[in-house]
Write a structure and sequence with these properties.
D-Maltodextrin-Binding Protein, domain 2; alpha/beta
Length: 357
C-alpha cells in the first residue's frame, strides 16, 4: 500500500511539472494571432520597388552669346523641360557657337550628333525649300503681319515640313527685320550697286543681293568684322542685335533701314535623337515647352533691339532712313525673283501670306 501511494505521488509531481512547463512556453510565443505556430516573415517579392530614374541629358546648340534673346529663350526652354519632367530630362545650352557654326550644327542635328539647335531659317531652308516662302523680299507689312502668319496654319505646316528631312520643328523665334550695313554711305539703290555684301549661304539671299545690283559674298558670321576691315567685303545685312553684339558697327557704320526681309529663327530638334531617347509623351511635352517660350523670346527681342540700336547710335552709327519712293525702288528691283524658279513654286503660299490680316 505504501509502495502504491508512493508511485501515485510521483506521477502527480511529474504531471504538475509538465503543466507548468507548457504554460511558460505558451507565454513566450509571439502575439501574432496564431498561438500554436511561430511565423517566419519572408520578404514579399511581389511588392513594387521604386528604381532610381536615370537622368537624360540633351545638348542644345546656339550661335549667339549668353545674353542674346534667343539664348535666353533657350535657357527658359531648358528650365521648363526640366521642371515638367521632374528633373528627369536636362538640356544643356551651348551658346556662343561652341558646337560649331550654323551649317555644321544643322548637319549634326540631322544625324543626331546634337539634340536641339536654334538656327536662322535661311540655312535651314536648304532642307525644306518651302521655308524660303517665309523669307521672300519685302513680303510682310510689319512684324505683326509676320507673327500672324507664323502662329497660324501656314506657320504650323512649315514647322512640320522639316520632319522628313530628319528634324522636329518646335517653334519660331523673332529675328527682326534684316537691313544692310556698310562701310560706305548708302542713301539709294544706286549707292548699293557694285558693293560686295556678305549674305547667308542661301540661294534666295544671293538672288536678292544680285537683283539689287550688289555682289553677294559668303563669309562666316564670326569673320564679318575682319572681312569688312580688310576690304574683302563692304558690308553685310542683318538685324540690330546681331550688328551690335558682333561689334560690326565699328567697321560698317552705316545702317540702312530697308527691311528687305524678316527671317524668323527656328528652334528644332533632331528626329533620330529624340525618338531614340524619349517617349512620344516626352516629345509632346518638349514641343509644348518650346512653344511656351515664344512670347518670352519676343519680349526679350524687343527689349534687346531697342537697347542695341541705342548702343550703336551712341557709338556713332549713322542710321539711314530711306524715303517711301526709294524703298519702292528696292522692292521693284527684286520682284523678278518671284517669277524665277524655284521661287515661283511658292506663289500659292506667298498669296496666302499676303492675305493674312
Amino acid at each position: 500500500m505504501k509502495k502504491l501511494l508512493s508511485i501515485i505521488m510521483t506521477l502527480v509531481i511529474i504531471l504538475s511539472i509538465t503543466a507548468c512547463s507548457s504554460s511558460d512556453d505558451t507565454n513566450d510565443l509571439p502575439d501574432n494571432g496564431d498561438l500554436g505556430t511561430e511565423e517566419i516573415l519572408e520578404p514579399d517579392d511581389s511588392e513594387d520597388v521604386d528604381e532610381p530614374t536615370e537622368q537624360i541629358t540633351l545638348r542644345l546648340a546656339e550661335l549667339h552669346a549668353e545674353d542674346y534673346p534667343t539664348t535666353l529663350a533657350n535657357y527658359e526652354f531648358a528650365r521648363l523641360v526640366e521642371e515638367r519632367s521632374n528633373g528627369r530630362i536636362k538640356i544643356d545650352v551651348y551658346a556662343g557657337g561652341q558646337l560649331g557654326d550654323e551649317k555644321a550644327v544643322i548637319e549634326q542635328l540631322q544625324f543626331g550628333g546634337i539634340d536641339f539647335a536654334r538656327v536662322s531659317l535661311a540655312p535651314f531652308a536648304e532642307f525644306s525649300r518651302d521655308l524660303n516662302a517665309l523669307m521672300m523680299p519685302y513680303l510682310y507689312r510689319d512684324a505683326d503681319h509676320m507673327w500672324n502668319v507664323l502662329n497660324g496654319e501656314i506657320g504650323q505646316e512649315l514647322l512640320e515640313s522639316v520632319y522628313d528631312a530628319g528634324f522636329i520643328g518646335l517653334c519660331w523665334y523673332d529675328g527682326g527685320a534684316r537691313n544692310f550695313y556698310t562701310s560706305t554711305e548708302v542713301n539709294s539703290l544706286e549707292d548699293l550697286s557694285g558693293l560686295k555684301i556678305r549674305v547667308q549661304e542661301n540661294q534666295l539671299m544671293f538672288s536678292l543681293i544680285e537683283h539689287l545690283g550688289a555682289s553677294p559674298v559668303s563669309v562666316p558670321m564670326g569673320d564679318i568684322y575682319t572681312a569688312v576691315q580688310t576690304g574683302v567685303i563692304e558690308g553685310a545685312e542683318n538685324n540690330w542685335p546681331t550688328y551690335e553684339s558682333f561689334s560690326q558697327y565699328e567697321v560698317a557704320p552705316y545702317f540702312v533701314l530697308d527691311g528687305h526681309t524678316r527671317v524668323p529663327e527656328i528652334l528644332a530638334a533632331s528626329k533620330s535623337s529624340l525618338e531614340s531617347k524619349l517617349s512620344d509623351e516626352d516629345i509632346q511635352m518638349i514641343i509644348e515647352c518650346a512653344k511656351e517660350t515664344q512670347e518670352f523670346q519676343i519680349q526679350k527681342w524687343n527689349e534687346r533691339e531697342e537697347a542695341s540700336r541705342e548702343i550703336v547710335e551712341n557709338a556713332g552709327t549713322i542710321t539711314v532712313e530711306l524715303s517711301q519712293e526709294e524703298l519702292q525702288k528696292f522692292s521693284d528691283a527684286v520682284q523678278p525673283i518671284y517669277e524665277m524658279s524655284p521661287y515661283n513654286e511658292y506663289e500659292e503660299i506667298v498669296s496666302k501670306i499676303r492675305d493674312v490680316q
